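TEACHING EXERCISE
Course module: macromolecular assemblies
Task: Read the component lines below, then compare them to the predicted structure of the full complex.
Student: A.B.
Group: 4
Components provided:
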Amino acid sequence: MIHYNRFVLDNGLRVLVHEDHSTPMAVVNIMYDVGAKDEDPNKTGFAHLFEHLMFGGSINIPDYDEPLQRAGGENNAYTTNDLTNYYCQLPAQNLETAFWLESDRMLSLAFSEKSLEVQRKVVCEEFKEHYINKPYGDAWHKMRALAYQQHPYRWMTIGKELKHVEDAKIEDVKHFFFKHYRPINAILVVAGNVKTEEVKTLAEKWFGSIESGEKYNRNIPSEPKQTAARLLEVTADVPLDALYKTWHIDSRLEKGYYVADLISEVLGGGTSSRLYQVLVKEKQLFSNIECYHFGTVDKGLFTIEGKLVKGVKMQDAEDAVNEIVSKIQSELISDIELQKVKNKTESVIAFEDMSVMNRANSLAFYELLGDADLMNKELLKYQEITSEEILEYSKQIFDPNNSNTLHYYSKN
Amino acid sequence: MILTTAIRCTTIARTKMLNRKQAPHIYDPVEFVLNLPPCEKFTLDNGVDVYAVNAGEEEVMLAEWVFFAGNSYEEQNILAATTNFLLKNGTKHKTAFAISEHFEFYGAYLNRHCYNETATVSLHCLTKHLSALLPVVAEMFTESIFPEEELAIYKQNQKQRLQVNLKKCDFVANRLIDEYLFGFDHPYGRYTSTEDYDKLQREDILKFYQQYYTQGKCILFVAGKLPEDIKQQLNNVFGKLSFKPATVDAVNIPATPAKEKKYEILNDPNGVQGAIRIARPFPNRRHPDFPKVSVLNNIFGGFFGSRLMSNIREDKGYTYGIHSYLQNHVQSSSWMISTEAGRDVCRATIEEVYKEMEGLRNEIVDQEELDLVRNFMIGTILGDLDGPFQIIARWKNYILNNLTEDYFYNSINVIKTVSAEELQEVAKKYLNPEEFYELLVI
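Instructor-supplied answer key:
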């Protein structure tokens, strides 16, 4: 049970405080309700590039990092398709330094041309390092574009292409900032060795006077129901053939999301999972196989991916995957297997909640989803799931017409 | 209504008062008194030492068995790592599947890692499940059988994995730079080829297993919210096994560094980035310069605000990240600079690295920068001491490096007091480009 206090400033900034006096540290986490899915299809990668620019100096403070480091703090940030999150941890005595820094960059950035020029390059190098200069690095670009035809999840957070990042202009930066980085679209979580009253005072002092901004109402196309199987075949300079398969699943707060999460554990959670045991160990068709989803806010993708053992035919590998999938569609999983995946979920949540930083981050995320208290209800939602529901939902999602398949061939 | 108005007024009044250019007062972390939370030590009936940190709010814990079974002890390449990897792939009574299922049923994570001196098995679990899990861990140390079939699957999959990794410039660079520093015959410099996997034999693995696990030296670390009867539980399950009490004796194999200092390798003709590694040999943690150089390293490339990062990423945009660090080796270390940079700016990046070395040799670090780094380092250590797993990790590092808690207090003291002059002195001593190996892999 994670305890917290919640209040809202007049300008609409939501503030959550999670007190934990067992740590000497404080965490300040600000989540903005904007992600790659809010981008213009011709200017993709912008939300993430923007995240970099948030460290390029704000209106009154030339450098974000330096004063924080001087106060003994560390920080980082990340962008997903759904949101952008900034977090820092510092000795609790210096909490106000974080308020000073975070509020100034919510007030306004410095919009430095130099920072934009440099960060365009840095992000291009990040793009190259992870998606161009790595074998199979482009697989997810291709899979997303195949599986989503309307919804902006069809591009990755890093962007569709280098050119979109290279073309970013300072006007785009300003526009994006004043549209999305306003108190009304943000959530502030303060956690650790802090007191709620103290946080209230500091929040009023530093954030209270920032103009509310306009509530951003998202109007993005939803993905139409897929009605026919899709297949893409590519050949690249990689050492091994690989298979990627995805199916559309429910959005984050729908029942199906939780069921799909447990299904992914049954199929791919650990070396006793069905996919690993049958395909890697017994049949030896794959040298590795994974099953996961992305936990996205809107309707997500359930994924199975693996690399084939040299000499194995793609068709045989795919048939074997389909056989495992059809088994979970036709037979109830055993009580022991159900208990196993529920135990795993309990354990995952307990380990995640060990760190104050994770707790702060989760609170912000559930608040973004609509209610921070959802964080304390997650485990129950998993515990209520029955094997019948797993069977029924498997039938629904593993419909071949809901599937997207990428055959990634080695050209050697 | 009235209340709202009042708050608005107050806000306006505060806005006028608020000078956003003025940083709030900070408490300099360098003034903080840091204490290393204690670690309890007890000994099992067979002499095996256990180190325990009982702390934390969540009902979770970690147990880690450290064996002196790292690759320093192998006579054949990759034998130590293979033995470690396959520990959980079958015992006299249980198949690999049954073992995995047992741990996974309880939502536990059983991991193993092979390092240079040590090889470990670690268990993360909910505290309430510990007693159901320990006997199976013990079984892996006494009754593993390393089935031929499991070995064959492992060889095949590891070879495939290696093939994929060899396409990556960073992977290739990491292997080669260690070879230049220590020589291929040294455990720190050795790496694996597909032929090495082919040569693995079950008999050799069994022999290694008997010697270094079943009859080997073991130290146990436990942390988290521990059950009250932790001592009895561990003693009942592990106290009668034929482990030897561990004395931390280093294997001393001399390094044979390469003569040639500069290398350029074309691994992927279509590569759009190059992996750069610049490194020099450096003494281990017991050397008196180590704590000072740790501070200097922070200034040089040890954190986001370092000179390398500020110059090469934040000013020039040549890379997504550049870091320098001292390798955490027991015997002898190295000082390493590591980055992946755009193919067309690799040479320029290397030049800048040398310029930053020159700056540290020729000019004294100014007080403001040094104060910042002191505060940052202390703040980081304070954050690192937060939580039982972090605390035990620090103790483990000291114990395995043959250090005591004095090392902790001495390091803190050096961070707080080392002078700019002393830093320049160690910069002059160690940051000489001609003593560094330089490698670029595209």
